Amino acid sequence: MNQTLAAGKSFGTATTGKLAMWLFLVMDALTFITILIGGIALRNAAPSWPQADVILNVPLTAFNTFLLICTSFTMVMALNGVQRNDQKSLVKYLGLTILGGVVFLGIQVYEYYHFIAGNESLGAALSASGFSGDKFLPSTGMYGAVFYTTTSFHGLHVLSGVIYLFVIFLQAKNGIYGSDNFDRVEIAGLFWHFVDLIWILVFTIIYLL
Amino acid sequence: MSTDHHKESFWTKYIFSTDHKIIGIQYGITSLVWLLFGFTLMMIMRYQLAYPESPVPFIGSLLGDGGILPSEMYNSLGAMHGTIMIFLGVVPLAFGAFGNYFVPLQIGAIDMAFPKLNAASYWMYFMGSVVMAIGFFVPGGAANSGWTSYPPLADVATMGQTVWLWGMVLLITSSLLGSVNILVTVIQLRTEGMTWMKLPIFVWTQFITAFLLLLAFPPLEAAGVLQLMDRLAGTSFFMPSGLVVSGEVLTNAGGGSPLLWQHLFWFLAHPEVYVLILPAFGIITEIIANNTRKPIWGYKALVYAMIFLGFMSFIVWAHHMYITGMGTTIGAFFQTTTMIISIPSVVILTALLLSLWGGSIRFNTPMLFALGFIPMFGIGGLTGLPLGLAASDIHLHDTYYVIGHFHYVVAPGTIFALFAGIYYWFPKMTGKKTNETLGKLHFFFSFIFMNGVFMPMFVQGLAGVSRRLWDGGEIYAHAADVLYLNEVMSVSAWLLGLAQIFFIVNMIVSLRGKKTAEVNPWDATTIEWTDTTSPPLGHGNFETVPSVYRGPYEYSVPGADKDFTPQSEKG
Hints:
The structure holds two protein chains of two kinds.
Chain A: H1 3-6, E1 10-11, E2 14-15, H2 16-45, H3 52-55, H4 58-83, H5 87-117, H6 120-128, H7 141-173, H8 183-208
Antiparallel strand pairs in A: 1-2
Chain B: H1 10-15, H2 20-50, H3 60-63, H4 71-107, H5 115-134, H6 160-188, H7 201-232, E1 244-245, E2 248-249, H8 258-292, H9 299-312, H10 328-356, H11 365-382, H12 385-388, H13 390-396, H14 400-430, H15 436-462, H16 485-512, H17 527-530
Helix pairs in contact in B: 2-4, 2-5, 2-16, 4-5, 4-6, 4-7, 4-8, 4-14, 5-6, 6-7, 7-8, 7-9, 8-10, 8-11, 8-14, 9-10, 11-14, 11-15, 14-15, 15-16
């Protein structure tokens, strides 16, 4: 992005890049809201809906939620580091944020694998919820459709966030950021916090309600 | 500027450019090619409608089956005509081409806020259009469930539908990137003195259009993801239980809601209508002010009407869905909002009409198209009122009346405005003048044949002829009295196609011609005319970035020494 065009321009206290990210997040939030509300509407229309903790592994995902909240904290620490011109702290906390994101994705992949491979106890849980077979798939009723669409759409956001932060991480290792130049770190942070925030909604709606 | 610049190769200068002007022209050329292609699809369909089941001349051998257009392909062509005209033609031309080229110039910016993002959004659009084209070559042909892609039909349709969805995802992403860019550019990069109420109306319309795209496309993107899941991952978001297709019960899980798609789709597609028309209003306003040589009537009323229009466009979508069995309470709500949204449209049209009053009008080609736009959009808008009321809509829904209505808005409406814009800004973009005689011939023939195509549709529609009939209604008794109109419309459509040759020849001849245009051939006031060369400098647009001291339409100011006072003139 061309920095010279944006030089000295600001909207309130937001730089040009930050303004663009906020606008992008408005549109992304609307996309998520559509998927979440669509899911809720279909659930209300369904004759029955399984209880959340029968099929899904709620404690494991609760841990995942905790992990993602922690990465929001490390992201704040990374920004705090660069604002103090503390290069080491910036690189360390960015690295931890990325690590947290990768572990989150790993656990999500493990969860999907467990569902798609199927086993007897999963089969028992499925039949208790009125489904046949011992695999939990996107085609397992509206429940499977809503679960997979919502969580995978969020997972793609985490993946994009990890790649995005990794680029920032490489730039940070080369020392291009400092207390006079941290706008891009802050903008990447906005995206990451947004993805975390959306996960809280997804977790509540899919795993708890 | 060019002296301290290393010599650029053809590829970096014209293909992978990040200059907003080059990107604007790339958008323009690509979308004009698609407009022509989309129109050609319709000309093929019109042959089948005028002369059912006779072989199509010239290209019949491509269609197979003895040169007769097969009914499945007719559906494909219909769906793709709508998709191409809207998403690959009119929106990229109105928003991508004109927005990219003229928003930075009119606000005194040296480029868009994010030039690389700008190039990315063009190439995303280009890839989306390639994916759409690939659709024609997959088994079963291109998408054939209508441009609205209603499930469950679209869920069980041939592979073309999947290609269509992937294409849409790319096109939506492109539009979203573009709209973020335009919004940030207008908010941040206005030159000194360019306050909000000094913006040319064209910039206002692009700004509001960008907001509409930003807020309306996400639901469609989400809906597209859900339909892709239905088609690829075996979910049943839009598939009801126990669906029977071709005598076989489908084994999908069911429990889905086809209506959910319609809500999500129209939540996008109604604001999309205003995405199509707002840039047209902007172009027409510029041209009318310029060619009446007087200030536009009611600048603030226009701005507020357009903002209100943009806001209202989000709460009228279900007027497309009266026949889905909605309750009378919901129906009453959407009828009311639909009647309310006609008010700002009337304000805008009235302001444009009153702007003509007492002006010394110059009848050049852009002005002719602008003057043609006003009554044509008026017809399109007024014929929409019966469709906004449930009682009359139940009779007219899905008939040719609907086709006539929205084509009057988009074809002799928006597309006339886009032609007007091309003729108006051609000297600025190329430094060459267009040929006025060819331009006027283009206008008059287009005007006559546009009406020849679309006016009879109201007659057929009122008689109850459905919009998606392969044989044009031949086997329906109630269509017998109006069937002869099919030939009238088809011949008009082909002649309309011929009339576009004037335009194509004009563009080529003018580009190659020696008649160079002055910097400000129309004696206009906005800064893209007064403060930069034709065409503007490669990178940077202005020799020195102008400051702005006055409103955009100061024509015939009493006491001034000439009949236009540029925005950048002091005092």
